[in-house]
Amino acid sequence: MPYGLMLLVWLGPQAEGAETIREQLTLPKGRIDVVLDSDMYNEVDDQFALAYALHSADRIDLKAVCAAPFKNHRSTSASDGMERSYNETLRVLEILQRSSDEFVFRGSKTFLPDRHTAVDSPAARRIIELAKQDRQGPLVVVGLGAATNIASALLIEPTISDRIMVVWIGGHPYDWDHARDFNLNQDIAAAQVLFGVGVPLVHVPAGDVAASLTISLPELEIGLKGKSPIADALYRNVEMYYQETAANKGQPRSGSNAWRKVIWDIATIAWLVDPENAVTSQIVTRPLLTDAGNWQQATHRYPVRVAVRLDRERIYTDLFAKLGRPYLPSPTIGGVEFDFRTHRRLAQGSDNWPTTWADDGNLYAVWGDGGGFDGTNSKGRVTLGVARIEGDADNYVGKNVWGGFEPEHAATFGGKSYGILSVDTTLAMWLVPQPGPHLSECRLAQSGDRGQTWQQADWAFRFDQGLSIPTFLNFGRNNAGARDEFLYSYFIEPQWGPKTPAESQYGFEVHKPGRIHLARVPKRQMMQRDRFEFFAGRDDKNQPTWTRSIGDKQAVFRDDNGVGWNVSVSFNAGLNRYLLATEHSATHDGKFGLFDAPQPWGPWTTVAYEDHWAEGHLEVSTFYWNFPTKWQSSDGRTFTMVFTGKNSNDSWNTVAGRFLRR
């Protein structure tokens, strides 16, 4: 059925509303709503663009992905190409741990028969539906392939032309003798719609412009390989494409004449992310696109913003930095800010400091290798001590309960702990050996008198079981607000140990690749080893499964850049999110990673991933951070964090901060 015949009375001598469109060719500040229209299976660049867009959530709110038709050596027809693109989109989203429900839509099964006739599809209808929603600014529709779906939406519902902006990659620069790149030549009629109707259009030409984004396999290997699941997958995809298209032609993989691949489609995302620096563009009069696929200069037509130059280094630097993060940005928390004017330091010489909020209203914390509050590295030194912190975040005092300088009770054994929990008026902590390799075993201890005395379990989890240095998941006061009757513990999977790595500067290193496991136990049976269950993956309904066989455990958290040798996890009730903090990449160096999830087992997303946390305010030497639930506001947005490190940060430290909502 032909749609929109009134829309395309083809523009010739005049273009009413040209000035209005010119004003609409600049992106608004802040976050923008985006639809991606992609021939995802055509080659290997669309996958990069999708991952880049989803990893740029501070700027891009991706509302939908539409599958575009294509036909080449990877498909038997336009319809087959669209279906393969649909399935490839699902595959990429699965790697990214992003739900595809009501997010991915099948597009046209054929190209446009002419520039007046739409090809209806769920993708075109979804573009229309999203365009009609109320929002500040336009819906930005980014086309990475043949413009069939976008043109069909404009033909079916012409009124959306003043509610959307189209960003399309295809064609060549206007001074070329022809315009026919792959995207344009697949559906010339659809491209004619984009250049003919009164929709704000940003054009990224393929030749000379997007073509500058060439990259070699060795460069991709350095930038992506081993950095994250999606980075690994994208690298492998290009490697396979090389084998498919170039290796048998004798093109070398590396060297001065190495094969290079253009990652075309990231140019469009780069313009959305950084239109002033990553992409140089101009506003000019749109050329006329002939039926033969050639540009023809014309006057009195609508303006177009056309990209003329890309900053290749800036674009790839941003892309690699984002894809190197283990998870997509948080959909709930847009970032975290710290007010270093509130920084407070006590207990110099004592480190670690996991915390819990107990039934008496106080925080209890565990330190190592020092005298605790009012002690020093030598005065009152114990390998393991327990303290009570009384008061609010802005007015507290610390007192040594068990061990340290002038304690209420002497410590009766040594060790280290990175996890403490108050539940049913009982304190529990995870212990690791000291002296002796920390990683060799981990066992529970509990106290029924608020830390005055402790009893250790007669069993332990061991290094050879792939478990080390655990922590507890902390909820509210005395575990109030817990999700169920289980206690949850997170274990780091050791990649070195149990002894200290031979060349370690600090006695510890991050574990690469980083894996964290989750166990649960009924809270009244926490001292019974046979009651522990480990996360064993998800079932076909995406629900967690559990096993008592340690050999069948599966990681709930993964960072190929590494995880720290310690971790903290707490529940932010105001935001209804679980927060996991650990190092990445290197230890004792401010490599602060903060992640959030809707459930204790994920799926995790990224809140912060910093390389030099507190730089310019404090020495960059921290290795542990935790968020006491007592010191979080009722809406979850403000907090006081506890942290520690080496040298000046070898101490109890607090700093106030706030989470930024999406």
From TrEMBL:
<dbReference type="Pfam" id="PF13810">
    <property type="entry name" value="DUF4185"/>
</dbReference>
<keyword id="KW-0326">Glycosidase</keyword>
<feature type="domain" description="Inosine/uridine-preferring nucleoside hydrolase">
    <location>
        <begin position="34"/>
        <end position="315"/>
    </location>
</feature>
<protein>
    <submittedName>
        <fullName>Pyrimidine-specific ribonucleoside hydrolase RihA</fullName>
        <ecNumber>3.2.-.-</ecNumber>
    </submittedName>
</protein>
<dbReference type="InterPro" id="IPR025442">
    <property type="entry name" value="DUF4185"/>
</dbReference>
<dbReference type="InterPro" id="IPR001910">
    <property type="entry name" value="Inosine/uridine_hydrolase_dom"/>
</dbReference>
<dbReference type="GO" id="GO:0008477">
    <property type="term" value="F:purine nucleosidase activity"/>
</dbReference>
<dbReference type="InterPro" id="IPR036452">
    <property type="entry name" value="Ribo_hydro-like"/>
</dbReference>
<dbReference type="InterPro" id="IPR023186">
    <property type="entry name" value="IUNH"/>
</dbReference>
<keyword id="KW-0378">Hydrolase</keyword>
<dbReference type="GO" id="GO:0006152">
    <property type="term" value="P:purine nucleoside catabolic process"/>
</dbReference>
<dbReference type="GO" id="GO:0005829">
    <property type="term" value="C:cytosol"/>
</dbReference>
<feature type="domain" description="DUF4185">
    <location>
        <begin position="442"/>
        <end position="610"/>
    </location>
</feature>
<dbReference type="Pfam" id="PF01156">
    <property type="entry name" value="IU_nuc_hydro"/>
</dbReference>
